[in-house]
Amino acid sequence: MTEQYNEEDFDLNDLPDDELIEQIHDDLYNGLRDEVIEGTEILLERDWSAKRVLDEALVGGMAIVGVDFRDGILFVPEVLMAANSMKGGMDVLRPLLAQAGSQTVGKIVIGTVKGDIHDIGKNLVTMMMEGAGFEVIDIGINIPVETYLAALEEHKPDILGMSALLTTTMSYMKVVIDTLIEKGLRDDIIIMVGGAPLNEEFGQAIGADVYCRDAGVAVDQAKKLIAERRAA
Ligand code: B1M
After folding, report:
1. pLDDT for the residue 2
2. Which CATH code for domain 7-100?
3. CB of 120 closer than 6 angstroms to any ligand 1 atom
4. CATH superfamily of 107-231
5. Ligand 1: distance of its center to the CA of 118 in Å?
6. How far, in Å, is the centroid of ligand 1 from the Cα of 3?
7. Ligand 1 centroid vs 184 CA: distance in angstroms?
8. Which segments in the chain show pLDDT lower than 70?
9. What is the pTM of this model?
10. Protein residue whose Cα sits closest to atom 62 of ligand 1
11. Ligand 1 close to Cβ of residue 167 (< 6 A)
């Protein structure tokens, strides 16, 4: 990406729209939260709709981050900083998007399973999904089946996402899925699982729809599965 500039080098207000968008992409990539917020506010002042700012400036920028993360060019700390910058821009847009009733790509409830307090990976997935335009309800860590069920009932998401980092807690995902089957709720929802000790075979064995090895894959799979379900 392009080099970073010192604050005194230029004023974001002086940039024409196309260069400002490019600059916001760079600032996201470089994790410059204040600059991303400022760029977002400038575009809104120029009468851009919140949706257009979201799509072109923020989601567009995070897409670049996602590709470089997938390709091993960026690593977790950089992606967390980019995601945090994205969140800064999102905080500015969120009330405007809610007012405009803008359609999200889809809705996901996500949490780390009971007995497990690791949340860095889950948070990364949350941020990347938000960056891709999903509405994400993060219900936290150490989540028992009752809390997952209550969240599904309350939020009616397209996807249930579960994360686990311990070999001793990953099997709890099956408890949640089996409970959904027992209650006749399994087919209403896409189930996505992830976490370092999991793999494809494990995902299949417990009856999840998809196992995702990282946050970038989670975004791609979520889009694909929702599109398939809507088409059906
Ligand atoms: Co813990 N820990 N830890 N730990 N910890 C591991 C997991 C461990 C492998 C370390 C080791 O021994 N080598 C080991 C597990 C061994 C095992 O199960 N066989 C371990 C252990 C044993 C423990 C404790 C039991 C230690 C103790 O107290 N004796 C304890 C457990 C507490 C508990 O949960 N009940 C414990 C505690 C902790 C800390 C609190 C100190 C801290 C967690 C801080 C936090 O999360 N807020 C911690 C950390 C940081 C780690 C390591 C070092 C790093 C984990 C991490 O954040 N990775 C870890 C060792 C390791 O993995 N190298 C370790 C970065 C993160 C971005 O990756 O979470 O895999 P990850 O997420 C990826 C993908 O997996 C995927 O996308 C993410 C981004 O690409 N993904 C999903 C994850 N969830 C997804 C969900 C999806 C889709 C994709 O859809 C829903």
Report:
1. 47
2. 1.10.1240.10
3. yes
4. Cobalamin-binding domain (3.40.50.280)
5. 5
6. 33
7. 32
8. 1-9, 98-103
9. 0.82
10. 196
11. yes
Pull the structure tokens for residue 55. Answer: 């799509």
User: Is residue 218 lining ligand 1, measured as CB closer than 6 Å?
Assistant: yes
By most ligand atoms within 8 Å of CB, the mutation choice from 125, 127, 165, 168 for ligand 1 is 165
pLDDT, tens digit, 9 for 90 and up, residues 177-229:
999 999 999 999 999 999 999 999 999 999 999 999 988 899 999 999 999 99
**Which atom of ligand 1 is nearest to 117's Cα?**
34
CA atoms within 13 A on the CB side of 20: 22
Domains 7-100 and 107-231 share a fold: no
Give the atom of ligand 1 at the shortest distance from the alpha carbon of 211: 88
**Domain residues of the chain, as ranges?**
7-100, 107-231
Residue 133 beta carbon below 6 angstroms from any ligand 1 atom: no
Residue type present at position 138: D
